[in-house]
Structure formats: structure tokens, C-alpha cells
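User: Reviewer 2 asked us to show a designed sequence for the structure in our supplementary figure. I'm pasting the C-alpha cells here. Could you produce the per-position amino acids so we can include them in the response letter?
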């Protein structure tokens, strides 16, 4: 049976609570906010994967994460995203580039490719970000440009990354449901 799989960094509860406070800041924004339990940083989206490949993914993630020590991520901005996209598709919290995280992502990608896992590589510089909400495009277009809220908020939230998770995404009518299949601790 195929499952939608991605590799992610999950957030501490206190960071989720802080990010939730921003929902109230833009009450007129036509947006579907992400549920608190679904807030995460996607490292690699793998797509539809079978059970045998999931075992291979778990093995690869364990092998790579064993080489990395815990590190910190600093979230420093909330903005429309993706950058320079008009109209914007979402609002996200963006973090400073973290060399350890970028290297971890790159090592995971190489290991997965070498293991025969087929997925699409992103051809852009990786910067940690958390999708806070998805903009409802048809409602957005109805708002006069000068009436659209400006979203460019400086924030300062830091947390330690102690594990990497292999996650399943089930698409449901009420929104996606994410399940941790495997949580692998950094050394």
C-alpha cells in the first residue's frame, strides 16, 4: 500500500503556541490556518512510497542522523510565501539558514537517492520555514490591493532540533493528518 511520506523536523509545543498567536493578528486575511499539531519544517517531501521503501527510508535516516549532533534553529520572520510569488500562496515563519540543517538535508537526499528512492529534488537554497496558513486565492483576489494586510513581521523564536521524523500525510476532507512513523534522535 502506498503512503504519502515526508521527512521533517517537528516543533516543540512552546514554539507552536507562540506561532498560533499570529492567527489573531490578521483576522481579515482569507486564509486556512494550519492546525497546531501539523506545524513542522519539511526537509524532504518524498511523495507516494510503498512499505518496503519506507523501511529503506528509515534505515537511511537513522544512518545519516547518527552523524549529526543536536543544533538550534532561529525563526526570525513571518511573511507571505513563497518569496516574490504574486499572489502569495501562504503565510510562513522563516528561519535563518542553518548550515548543519542544510548539510543534514543534503546528506539525507544523497543517501535516499543511493538507496533507490525516487523523489523530486528541490533546486533552491534551503532555508527552514513553517507553513502557518494557506491563502484562499479566490477570496484574496476579491480584496483591493491596497486593503490587503502587509505581513512582514520580525520575530525571534529559537529551539533545539533533537530528532528528525519520518512522517505520513493523509489527505482528509478536514485537512491533512500527519502521523510520525519513526522519530530518530540526533546523537
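Assistant: Here is a per-position design you can include in the supplement:
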Amino acid at each position: 500500500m502506498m503512503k504519502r511520506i515526508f521527512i521533517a523536523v517537528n516543533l516543540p509545543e512552546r514554539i507552536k503556541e507562540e506561532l498560533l498567536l499570529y492567527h489573531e493578528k490578521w483576522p481579515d486575511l482569507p486564509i486556512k490556518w494550519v492546525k497546531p499539531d501539523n506545524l513542522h519544517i519539511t526537509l524532504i517531501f518524498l511523495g507516494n512510497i510503498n512499505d518496503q521503501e519506507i523501511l529503506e527510508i528509515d534505515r537511511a535516516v537513522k544512518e545519516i542522523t547518527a552523524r549529526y549532533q543536536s543544533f538550534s534553529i532561529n525563526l526570525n520572520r513571518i511573511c507571505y510565501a513563497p518569496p516574490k510569488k504574486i499572489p502569495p500562496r501562504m503565510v510562513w515563519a522563516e528561519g535563518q539558514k542553518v548550515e548543519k540543517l542544510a548539510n543534514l538535508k543534503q546528506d539525507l537526499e544523497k543517501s535516499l537517492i543511493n538507496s533507490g528512492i525516487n523523489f523530486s529534488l528541490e533546486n533552491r537554497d534551503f532555508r527552514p520555514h513553517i507553513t502557518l496558513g494557506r491563502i484562499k486565492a479566490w477570496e484574496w483576489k476579491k480584496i483591493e490591493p491596497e486593503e490587503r494586510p502587509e505581513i512582514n513581521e520580525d520575530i525571534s523564536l529559537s529551539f533545539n532540533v533533537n530528532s528528525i521524523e519520518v512522517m505520513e500525510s493523509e489527505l482528509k476532507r478536514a485537512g491533512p493528518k500527519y502521523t510520525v512513523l519513526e522519530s530518530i534522535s540526533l546523537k
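For the response letter, you might also mention the following. The chain has one domain: 3-185. The CA atoms of residues 29 and 152 lie 14 Å apart.
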